[in-house]
């Protein structure tokens, strides 16, 4: 898949930017001005703020920091929208969208023989159109048509012989190769060094599986309880893990104290006057929280300190029970996590532990 994301997509972007091997547009008109590109990358960063990290990592730093994965996501899902109306002629945008469709077909989990033959026809048409737009059948523009362009023509046969792309190319294999590269230390006997690395890793994996040594063989920055050095967990809240940053001396403002008071008053069956004087003036405030074996979410006050390109991970979905016509039914709600505040309730105003099902006063 590197032929798509490491090569052809970058070639197209460089052609549209006027930065490909000092070539001009020739008889065509496909270049996009610099100020328009600046707007495109700005819109890319703004759009990424609200796309969940499960889909793609942040791309807010621009194309200079794009990985293969980032180029795939950007060109396949964002470029057809972001570049619409940016060209002086719509035919270049249609050519872009056709390539996006080719990529989507190639990364399907399953493909029939009929789909592969249709893919072959689409690729042939796309390559011929590329030659007409960018190569223009001019000898002095031969550099606009590198081998990877015609390498596309062999992709359908590769899928027929080897199966869909996911069977032969994965990010997992790349990461394993990255592990081997980082561990390689011998310059005189690199092959023996690699053999030992693979063998010893296999030994450790077998020991971990046979004798339940997951904690003992964890990486140094992992605690034996599964928490990293940047995480904290209250004993009586095993499903909730707090994460740095942590502001240990935080004084909630009047508005926040009022909200906390109203919450505990309703929960404990007390009046606001009984609750408010007992609340601490200074407490701890954490930046992030995650659920065990689940995802993490950052609070809005932490995100406010980041740059504009940072992903917005403070938006959450939750389910509450709503009483309708005498029956309790689940209702899905959406909101934003503003702050994570630790508030200890004195025993004299009520036993919160009994209500929450724990022994804690928090």
List keywords for this structure.
7 strands, single chain, 362 residues, alpha+beta, two-stranded antiparallel sheet
Model description:
With 362 residues, the protein is α+β, with helices and mostly antiparallel strands. It folds into 3 domains: 2-167, no CATH class; 171-211; 231-356, no CATH class. It has helices at 2-17, 34-48, 68-82, 90-106, 113-135, 147-151, 155-162, 171-183, 190-211, 254-268, 272-275, 300-303, 352-356, and strands spanning 231-232, 240-250, 283-291, 296-298, 315-324, 327-336, 340-342. Strands 1, 2, 3, 4 and 7 form a 5-stranded antiparallel sheet that branches. A hairpin with a 4-residue loop joins strand 3 and strand 4 (296-298). Helix 1 (2-17) crosses helix 3, helix 3 crosses helix 4 and helix 5 (113-135) packs antiparallel against helix 7 (155-162). The two termini are 52 Å apart.
Rg (C-alpha, Å): 28 Å
**Helical proportion, percent range:** 40-55%
| Category from helices, strands and their pairing | alpha+beta
The number of helical segments is 13
**Low-pLDDT residue intervals, each spanning 5 or more residues:** none
- Shape annotation: extended
Order of helices and strands: HHHHHHHHHEEHHEEHEEEH
End-to-end Cα distance, whole Å, is: 52 Å
Main beta-sheet strand count, sense and barrel state: 5 strands, antiparallel
- Using DSSP, what is the number of strands? 7
The structural domain count equals 3
Please indicate the percent range of residues in DSSP E strands (runs of 2 or more).
Answer: 5-15%
Integer average pLDDT:
87
